[in-house]
Amino acid sequence: MSDLIEALKAIGVSEVVLAINYQPEVMMTFLKEFEAKVGIKITCSQETEPLGTAGPLALARDKLIDDSGEPFFVLNSDVISEYPFKQMIEFHKSHGGEASIMVTKVDEPSKYGVVVMEESTGKVQKFVEKPKLFVGNKINAGIYLLNPSVLDRIELRPTSIEKEVFPNIAAENKLFAMVLPGFWMDIGQPRDYITGLRLYLDSLRKNSSSKLARGSHVVGNVLVDETAKIGEGCLIGPDVAIGPGCVVESGVRLSRCTVMRGVRIKKHACISGSIIGWHSTVGQWARVENMTILGEDVHVSDEIYSNGGVVLPHKEIKSSILKPEIVM
């Protein structure tokens, strides 16, 4: 999120409006701390019921419109990419339409809703959901720049901006698409999150390599918070992110995984292809792999093996999980 905030500050954005629904108290507490840290105002718009991808804009209408009449960005929270905001503003001004969307190229467009557009102008012609025949290879990347007038098209009810609003704007020849440079990934699913982490770390290597960890214990791209503690004899990487306040004891092996805030990984544990939730513990000689997901405050005992377990928060795991299953 800090990279996103930096990109917004670079184009002069001083305030962000965040639509929240799930665990709003937790989000607001975190965001208040984050707001002070990054120096940008973060205002929350809380949904009392899920309103889809367009309804929250109607709910936050008063927060999005000011006297300037300038367009505003809308970002999906479950995607990760580079953020070419300056280029998108220039593109939006050049075409004079009502809305701009970012699109990205994919190898298998039949899995997605495809954006059919004029290559020369970027004008969106139509949307085709999971086409059986090839109509294009560009899909919605979840990054939009909208004129305030778009809000007049949205009612305060559960609404999809992709399926209900954008097709109407496209029918009036007022919707344009810009191809996203750089990487992109929808990280709404754990396996995709791990892929997105790899792409993000690859981008850091190219653009801000000083942020990556270095040392004889590091293999490939690794991101370690400055408050985390790493023991002797560890081997970490590739594609690992370690959050604030984590303690990684000696002899630990980590690869292709995310270790969130306040986690303790005890001696000689091995974690690969997994996500370890906030304030969890992985015991000595434990082995956690194959897209195991530990929720918040999960404690895995010593010498336990987890093969793809999905463990809900506040659990203690005393026996091995031999095949992928949900532990409630």
UniProtKB/TrEMBL annotation:
GO terms for biological process: GDP-mannose biosynthetic process. GO terms for molecular function: GTP binding; mannose-1-phosphate guanylyltransferase (GTP) activity. SUPFAM superfamilies: Nucleotide-diphospho-sugar transferases. Pathway: Nucleotide-sugar biosynthesis; GDP-alpha-D-mannose biosynthesis; GDP-alpha-D-mannose from alpha-D-mannose 1-phosphate (GTP route): step 1/1. InterPro entries: GMPPB_C, GMPPB_N, Mannose-1P_guanyltransferase, NTP_transferase_dom, Nucleotide-diphossugar_trans. It comes from the Eukaryota. Residues 218-327 form the Mannose-1-phosphate guanyltransferase C-terminal domain. Keywords: GTP-binding, Nucleotide-binding, Nucleotidyltransferase, Transferase. Its EC number is 2.7.7.13. Pfam families: GMPPB_C (PF25087), NTP_transferase (PF00483). Gene3D superfamilies: Hexapeptide repeat proteins, Spore Coat Polysaccharide Biosynthesis Protein SpsA, Chain A. Residues 5-200 form the Nucleotidyl transferase domain. Belongs to the transferase hexapeptide repeat family. This is mannose-1-phosphate guanylyltransferase.
